[in-house]
Amino acid sequence: MARAHGDGLRGHVNESGLGAAGIAVGLAYLALSVFVILARLPRQDRLNLPPVAWPLWRRTRLPMTLAAVATGAFAVASSLLPPGSAVASGTWMAALLGWTGAVVILDAVSRGKRLRELPALQRGLLTALVVVFAAVTLTRALAPALGAAIAIEAQVVFAIAMLVLLENVMRNAEREILWHVSLPGVATGGLALVSLLLYAAVILQHRFSPPLIGARLALLVMVLPLFAAGAMRAIRWRPRRLHLSREAAFYSASLILGGSFMIVLGIVAELVRDYGTGLAGVIEWAIMFAGLLVLAIVASSGSARSRLMVALSRHFAAAPYDYRQEWLRSIATLSADGGVSVAQRAIKALADTADSPSGILLTHDRQAARLRYSEGWNTALEIPAIPAGTDLFRRCCERTVVELDPEGVTAPFWLAVALPDPRASGPLGVVLLGRPRVAQPLHREMAALLTVVAGEISLVMAERQAAEALAVARRFEEAGKRFAFVAHDIKNIANQLGLLLDNSQRHMADPEFQADLIGTVRDSVDKIRAMIRRLDPSAADRAGRLDVGARLRHLLAHRGRVVLDEGDGHSIVAIDPITFDMIVNHLLDNALEAGTAAQTVIVALSHEPGRVTIRVIDQGRGMSAHFVRERLFRPFASTKAAGFGIGAFQTRELILQAGGSLDVESEEAAGTTMTIRLPTVHEPAAERLETAGIDHE
């Protein structure tokens, strides 16, 4: 029955002149597809952004090209065939599916995601649209009677699913994403709405409505510029983010203006119906669709929203800015990372406050006394360095917000926002903002808000610079600590070699002295090499291994007044042998100096699961608890006239680097016990001889 009604309608359409119009619309959409494929924009637009890459071109232009071809095919088919025919119905569904897919793909590309990474609802609805289209097409081809019976209901379900999918995409799109999908999304939603009305009327009235068919063709003409503009935006790929405050006033004004506009359209449509010609119904629906399109475009247009916000701020809003919302927005922008530098986030926070589309940061080079270009946001423009003696520099030192000369060296920028340095006089930097989307004067409220945001940005950037300087200072501190340890060890080696030279004049002919001389020089060379290795920060990762018991026996073999009390067992520790010798020798030297010539020093070695304990025990003069707590490990505080004051500090640091600990128990006039605890490692028995340190004898 739908086919019969469609055949009866064909003569009416052609007689009304809509047949030729359909062919013209079809040719226009085919021309749009050719333009989308062949269009070549300038390499840089007015914001000097780089051209878009080929993969993005392919993923955004190809879906729009296919959708435009399908729409052109439907327009031609609708002018030659009845509206209920298989070709007209199929091409109409293909056009709707093509534009919906283009919007979804454009949204996915804008987010940097693939289709399978979209929300489950969007993927499910898009899959449902494809299934419905395929089912209707196959049914019309294999069983024409059954296909014609279910085609109308399928069109209604198809349109409803489209509207739900488009609403979900538009509602969840962020501001910069909405800039890309708003126009094709609004246009596709308009087509889905007229499709829903047309086929719902067929279900209710059992015939196609000629006014709705004509209005559908008129709507195709109306949305053609929207599809073209959407394609241009996808090709151009210039992300923008527009943050708006004062939402209550904005939405109230939007509802009032939108309602007033729809009332006017209703009055005009009623007049056309009462006094119009035979096309009054077509014109009435066309006017209604035009009104909906205008409202949707205005609602999704950044420029229109900006103009409305400026007008509200001037004439209606008591407080032009919601400082709470602006503050939260600025904090969110500064804290968001996403691979964007702190400088670009700072520029963006100020640009959103002033409704500016771009900006650059000039940092204050205090050594060269100038402002020099650092980074840009949404622009590739750079300006020459601004010396400290210029008028702009002086004004930025005096005020936070400065309106720039449109003909000066800072053109085409509009405002200069100084970032006050919390640590010194003069600005930390200056942000130059591009002219806003809607021309507006610099009023007091905007300057006050920019001053507040600039102060927060200054604190963030100063904290970042301080953290970087602290990291550098810590690296220098670590290097200085290693050099101080080396200087202390070199002093000890120099004293040892000096004593050897003094004795060589009397004992050089003694063979035993000669052997001792060679051994001492070899030991000094090994120690110097170990010092050089310690200057490398990664030397701790290449520590050797040694048997603690064997190494202690080797060290104490030539020591007088030292007794080794070795417990049962053995332990392997991960530490450089020269470093271990330095630790033990330092503690032994101090213990021997603290006692008399008649007193001995006990070195007690005990083995425990997972660790080894070495105790150096003397019966010397001891130390007070205050001295141990406040002075013993303080660097550069020595009780010796020729000492560096870092021996005890170095010893503890070396033990800590090996993963161990050093504890002190001392009592004045009773002696001192220095306890070293080191973690042990497991090692096969075949390797113990190699790690025992015998090769250093």
Automatic annotation (TrEMBL):
PROSITE patterns named among the record's database cross-references: HIS_KIN (PS50109)
Top-level class of the enzyme under EC nomenclature: transferase
Membrane-crossing segments per the record: 20-41, 62-81, 87-109, 121-139, 145-166, 178-201, 213-236, 248-269, 275-299
GO biological process annotation, one example: phosphorelay signal transduction system
Molecular function terms, GO-annotated: ATP binding; protein histidine kinase activity
Listed EC numbers: 2.7.13.3
Catalysed transformations (reactions): ATP + protein L-histidine = ADP + protein N-phospho-L-histidine
Residue ranges annotated for the Histidine kinase domain, each copy included: 485-682
Entry keywords, A to Z: ATP-binding, Kinase, Membrane, Nucleotide-binding, Phosphoprotein, Transferase, Transmembrane, Transmembrane helix, Two-component regulatory system
Lineage top rank: taxon: Bacteria
PANTHER family in the record: PEROXIDE STRESS-ACTIVATED HISTIDINE KINASE MAK3 (PTHR43065:SF10), SENSOR HISTIDINE KINASE (PTHR43065)
Name of the protein: histidine kinase
Organism, scientific name: Acidiphilium cryptum (strain JF-5)
Upper taxonomic lineage: Bacteria, Pseudomonadati, Pseudomonadota, Alphaproteobacteria, Acetobacterales
